[in-house]
């Protein structure tokens, strides 16, 4: 059965006080540059620019204590922010962590969470360089990721897709939504579904994938966070191109089909609307870079469509409107 | 009477949806680099390092709707983060904003807040470059500030105070706590107290003060955020020195004395424990840089104290233990 649940025992934040809580968090995620008014970072290369992004995780809305662990949540929080850094073609170098938590929360929740952050950023040689802890009604976590963009090529932006390029992707699509549905079903889950549970609890990207894609000549990139169709549509709209996805290339695999059968959900819904896989998706002329596969094409005549007054930003699957196309909405 | 209260009318977050809410926020605080997976920043000078810091503001704990306005709160949120950047001797260049808010919140609260951010960062030529909005039980705001540290001098760190230096400060001390006490008193407040109310609602630092101090040869710096004695003690402990503050230089001025009389509080408590003025405080050999004044001395023989086994990190006022020495504690 999956690993879930938060620690409920041990000393609380109120019992330990702010100083000791911070000491334990920084012990769980050590850093040479943490502990002053602000962290000083030394970007990697002489030519480098700085990349920054932030995400907030609210208990009950973005995570539930019964469906994950603090350690897994810490890892996921890193991935969802680092995916945004990698999606610029940049290298993640640092994380800042702010959180509010009820005063009766066992400190182990926070140290486990920080331990998960440390575990995940280690694969990037990044550091937790600063943060803030405060009391609040419920657990709210804010992560800011900072990256370094070296070299002379432009960043991989949402408006960088060009007519005639291939659409590429790196990693699972639909696994996170499937894993969540499996956990929410409350059913006894056979071990074979572990990759889906992991896809939900700790989606991962191979560190450096965005850098590899940029070096290989990709011109646009984003990640599958709000839903495949929604995110690819944003890319298409911002680039003023139309995109057609290959049905076969994104079709649910056997694991997704089996999970769909178990819980009675069409797995295409997970693929097209799921999000939260944080799989990097971009566009490139020619072959897919190492680690990426082709999942579609940017229409050759997107610019003509535009000049003819037709709407650019249309996303199809094998030329047809996608069967599912909703995405994450923060205020619904 | 002071300007307080949050908008209670107009379309809510739920009614408008995430996209429109983000559109209105970015309209209130426009930026050329916002709107992609992550923001790309171009640090100012060839030699520059990046400085980063973050702070979280929780409704009911760090602010109350009846004691400020969203616009003033936005300005204060910038100052408290930029003060940490300036306290490294760096120049603030960017802000990221994450927030969770109840879905029935009028969007004007957020656009006013973003407008306040835009107003304050304008004085620094900085930009709001990214963020995240999400639903949550209560209003929780997380700000990350990014700065640029140019040149060859080291940053102004907490461990940089040296024996024989002067302690310098820039701006009000105790005004924020006094302003809060005045507002909490519920009394009719004469206009003369406006500087104290402003000190609480919108403490400010003169942009570039940290850079000036670093150029002039300051070696350590922090800001008055948790309380004068607590923050100076942190500086003294981390630098392993003892610090004596000049009673006359920090004594409550006539305004603080009058406010203390009105609400029946010893104004020394505001000066010594108050915090949240975000006044920059540091140490330097020789004269105070432009805009700073001398408020104390680093003991000449701090190192001897240490080698004699005596405890370094002691802060006194005219050689005596301070009358008040508590500070902010997040979990109390």
TrEMBL record, chains A, B:
GO terms for molecular function: ATP binding; magnesium ion binding; thiamine-phosphate kinase activity. Keywords: ATP-binding, Kinase, Magnesium, Metal-binding, Nucleotide-binding, Thiamine biosynthesis, Transferase. ATP binds at residues 131-132, 225. It holds the Pfam family AIRS. The keyword Transferase applies. Mg(2+) 5 binds at residue 226. Belongs to the thiamine-monophosphate kinase family. HAMAP family: TMP_kinase. This is Thiamine-monophosphate kinase. It comes from Corynebacterium aquatimens. The gene is thiL.
């Amino acid at each position: 059965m999956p690993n879930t649940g938060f620690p409920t025992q041990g000393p609380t934040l109120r019992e330990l006080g702010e100083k000791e809580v911070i000491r334990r968090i920084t012990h769980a995620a050590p850093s040479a540059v943490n502990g002053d008014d602000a962290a000083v970072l030394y970007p990697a290369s002489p030519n480098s620019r700085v990349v920054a992004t932030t995400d907030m995780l609210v208990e009950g809305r973005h995570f539930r204590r019964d469906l994950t662990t603090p350690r897994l949540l810490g890892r996921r929080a890193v991935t969802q922010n680092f995916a945004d850094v990698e999606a610029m073609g940049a290298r993640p170098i640092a994380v800042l962590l702010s959180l509010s938590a009820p005063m009766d929360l066992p400190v182990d929740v926070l140290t486990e969470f920080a331990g998960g952050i440390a575990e995940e950023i280690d694969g990037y040689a990044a550091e937790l360089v600063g943060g803030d802890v405060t009391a609040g009604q419920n657990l709210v976590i804010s992560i800011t990721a900072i990256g370094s963009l070296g070299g002379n090529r432009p960043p991989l932006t949402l408006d960088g897709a060009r007519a005639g390029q291939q659409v590429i992707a790196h990693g699972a699509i639909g696994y996170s939504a499937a894993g969540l549905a499996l956990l929410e079903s409350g059913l006894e889950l056979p071990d074979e579904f572990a990759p889906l549970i992991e896809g939900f609890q700790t989606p991962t990207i191979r560190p450096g994938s965005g850098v590899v894609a940029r070096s290989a000549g990709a011109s646009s990139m984003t990640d599958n966070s709000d839903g495949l169709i929604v995110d690819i549509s944003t890319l298409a709209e911002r680039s003023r191109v139309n995109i057609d996805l290959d049905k076969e290339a994104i079709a649910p695999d056997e694991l997704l089909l089996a999970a769909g059968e178990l819980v009675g959900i069409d797995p295409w819904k997970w693929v097209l609307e799921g999000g939260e896989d944080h799989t990097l998706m971009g566009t490139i002329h020619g072959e897919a870079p190492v680690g990426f596969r082709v999942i579609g094409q940017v229409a050759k005549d997107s610019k003509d469509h535009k000049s003819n007054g037709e709407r650019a930003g249309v996303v199809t699957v094998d030329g047809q409107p996608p069967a599912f196309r909703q995405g994450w909405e923060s205020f619904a």
